[in-house]
Each structure stands twice: as structure tokens, then as C-alpha cells.
Amino acid sequence: MPNFDYEAPTSLKTALGVLSGNGENRPLAGGTDVIDQLKNNRRNADLVVDLKRIPELLTLELDEGRLRIGAAVSCTEVHNLTSENDCFPALSEASELIGSIHIQNRASIGGNVCNAAPSADTIPALLVHEAIAHTASATGGREIPLIDFFAGPGQTVLQKGEILKELVLPVPSSNTASAYLRFIPRNEMDIAVAGVGSLIEVDPSSNIVQKARIALASVAPTPVRAYTAENFLEGSTIDNPTIEKAADLAVEAAVPITDVRGSAEYRKELVKVLTKRTLNICRERLA
């Protein structure tokens, strides 16, 4: 591992000042990605800034209107809160899939987002729940819809000295259900060949879909939304033919590559299967 300096500030102002300095300065929210990347020379750093001691980045609050997740909050904490309160089921499921329990206790949802891996499990769940990324820098902050946060594999729109402060998700209506599923060839290979998050809001009196969100992982350079499938679902009755058609349409958003984990065509077929399954889970949860 290359040599680098390390700092663990206890205030957001101090951290932002340090990160905006000269050199290759990298924030650390959990470290499960960046430390491995440094060890394997996939990233460089002159300074690593540990964000785990900053109160503003450790916020985890759920009220009637929104869920706030600080950038340094662990996957375990998010899973526990969402499962105990029976809310944001797709996020609850995804946050329990990040490596082992030991990794989940350390890794953060914010770090999973900022690592910007196309295969990241929490991102489709956050996208279907319409997460907004709130950033902070020495010169101010921004609010960025999460779908606009990713610039490419491993790349975000964050500028030098700017960090993710928190993710904010609106609390869905009681007539809403979500689900996340991924496919991995074996338990030891903990990277999704394809992943799908789905959310539907249904009018209980007519069974007509009022809102639909479908997000895909590991089938494009960045996480993507299946807009054509979403538009088809909205205004339709949620039945077997509708779900079959939506699953077919979701494939249009996928532009996968062929690699050692699967061919492009295989990934497209997985998108179809996982979309169908997640929509059926949503329907069951609304029953």
C-alpha cells in the first residue's frame, strides 16, 4: 500500500477545509472500498480523511415526511431502522447484501454510493425511492437527484473538496411497495451480475399503478432507470400480463458488457427475470 497521511476530524468544517487542500485527498466513510483500492494501486491518495467522527455525517432520522441517511451511517444501521419500521423495503434488502455482516457494520450507504460501482446494490433501491444527494463543500452545498449523481464507472459529479453529506428519501404512501433482487453465481462471488429495484404505488380501489420506478444495476456504465417500463406501468392495472410486458420493456434500459461474470445477452435476460420477480413481490406486499 502506498504511504499516505491520515486525519480524522470531528467537525464538518475542518474536514471540508482539509479535503479542499492541495494533493490527492480522499474521504473515507467506511473504508471497505477505498482501502482495498489503495492496496491494489487502483486509486492514489496523499491524504485520507476519516469522516466517521463527524456528527452531521452520522445522522439517521426517520419522520413522517422523510428518511435522512448521513454519508457515514453504516449499512447495518440503515437495515435495522428500515426493517424495524417496516419501511423502504428495497433499501432494507439491499443494505443487507453488502458483503458479510462485518463489512455491513463498517461500510456506509454513502460510501457505496460514492464508490459509484455500476454493480452497487444499494443504488437501485435508493433510486426507486427517489433519493436526493445533499453535498457539502467549503463554498456551499448542492442537492442532486441521485440519478444525476453518477458520471461513469467509479465516477461521480462531486468536485474537488466536495463530499456527500447525506441522502434524503421521501417517505412513500401506504399504498406503495418496493423490492430489490440481484443475481450472483455463488455466495462467494458477492458482486451482482445484474440487480433490479422496483417500486409501485397502486390505487387500492382500482388496482391501477399511479407511480412506478425501476432501477437496474450492473448492466450499464452507471446505474440506470427503466423509464419506458415505468411509463408503461403507470396507468395500467398491475396483473400478470402487465408485469410480463414491463419486464420486457425494462431490458431496453440495459446496455451491458460481456465479461467473465456473464455475457451481455445473459445480463439482459436477468434484467427481465429480476424485474418480473421484484414487481411480483411488490404486488404481493400490497395485497
Description:
The structure is a single chain. This protein has 287 residues and is α+β, with helices and mostly antiparallel strands. The chain has 3 domains: 5-50, Uridine Diphospho-n-acetylenolpyruvylglucosamine Reductase, domain 2; 55-170, Uridine Diphospho-n-acetylenolpyruvylglucosamine Reductase, domain 3; 176-286, 2-Layer Sandwich (Enolase-like, domain 1), CATH 3.30.390. 32% of the residues lie in helices and 24% in strands. The chain is built from 10 helices and 14 strands. A 5-stranded antiparallel β-sheet has the order 4-5-10-6-7, with helices on one face. A 4-stranded antiparallel β-sheet has the order 11-12-13-14, with helices on both faces. The longest helix is centred in the last third of the chain and has 23 residues, at 264-286. The chain starts with a strand and ends with a helix.
CATH first level of the largest domain: which class? Alpha Beta
Strand content: 15-25%
* Largest sheet: number of strands, sense, barrel closure: 5 strands, antiparallel
- Shape by Cα distribution: globular
CATH topological fold name of the largest domain: Uridine Diphospho-n-acetylenolpyruvylglucosamine Reductase, domain 3
Query: Taking Cα atoms only, what radius of gyration do you get, to the nearest Å?
Result: 19 Å
Mean model confidence by pLDDT: 93
Percent of residues in helices comes to 25-40%
What is the string of helix and strand elements? EHEHEEEHHHHHEEEEEEEEEHHH
Q: What is the topology, as strand order, of the major beta sheet?
A: 4-5-10-6-7
**What is the tally of helical segments?**
10
For the secondary structure, the number of strands is 14
Please give the CATH architecture of the largest domain.
2-Layer Sandwich
Tell me the span between the first and last alpha carbons: 53 Å
Q: How many structural domains are formed by the residues? A: 3
